[in-house]
Amino acid sequence: MRAVIIGGGIGGLATALALRRVGIESTVVEQVPSIREVGAGLSLWSNAILALRELGTEGKIAEQVIASGSEFDTFSSQTSSGRPIAKSRFTDMAREAGAPCVCIHRAELQRILFAQLGPASVRTGARCVEFDNSTAILESGERIDADFLVGADGINSIIRAQLHGNEPARYEGATCWRGICYASQLLPARTSLLALGPGTQFGACPCGQGQVYWFLAKNAPRGTIRSKADALAACESWSAPVLDFVHATPEEAVIQNDILDRKPLKHWGRGRVTLLGDAAHAATPNLGQGACQAIEDAVTLAHAVRANPNIEAALRTYERLRIPRTTAIINDSWRAGQLLQTEQPLIAAFRDWFSASSIGQRIQTQMFRKLLLHRVPEL
Fold first, then answer.
1. What tens digit of pLDDT does each residue of 129-145 get?
2. Which domains are delineated in the chain?
3. CA separation for the pair 147, 47 (Å, rounded)
């Protein structure tokens, strides 16, 4: 049995590795000329580290990721003026899960996965434009036959569009700058920071090798191109160390994108075709679960395919297992974004008070337990 996977990002590479663990080889089709270093940082919560341990013998991949990133177990929030809002610690939760929470450069995670998979399994510079049953059809006219096809080609997925129509992605109402700088001394050890202002939020987390990953989200019209200077202007009156992180990042290293998601689907694939990662369940980044859920998808898909020789039945089982969890994350992340990006002073004041209250802390703990303690099937 052989699979063709459209998309060579985190989800696509993880899927090829997971399928290999259960005896299925894959061809990963990626449209860019090479697997190159792109993106900024991403969080891999305990649930993702647990899933990564299923991809390589004796947890080799997970251990490389932990060594290349930074572990964090404290989440500290404050207002734009520096007034503390709340502090949450995930030490006990990570211990219960048996895996840490890690922030890592996206390119480093992709490098680790690609090195483990090997270049022979990846076709770069090949753009898939459609599929026919489980055959991928490339822009060149070449056809790649396989027993099943996985669309892991991101939020603007060609495979999703053919399955479900080309509906535009949903705009959260905010644009986001992201960057990585060498300024880890400005953050307390093992701590992720969130600062909130009217219609604006700033986050920072240690990201391995003395680096810090930061993001700045601000309410803005869709499609507006913004520069590093605009990011600095958006937080010019904020307390330290927000501006320091932005100043420490070279202009060419600052990425700016609108924050988008896609409304949940009730079903993902049909026949011998399915979706995975952002192609299936793109969420806003407010819960930090994008890459985590793609890796969970990969392991769950491989488990379902191994358990059932009927590939169509196996793909539908995978979807039934994953759709409820990813739907909840899309919806919760969207609601969190609306609350974090509010411009209403009274709503913001209530949000901050509730976050620090015992009830708010208990609800947050329950939510993160559902996220972090989830275990994928063993491979």
1. 999 999 999 999 999 99
2. 2-169+261-372 (3.50.50.60)
3. 30
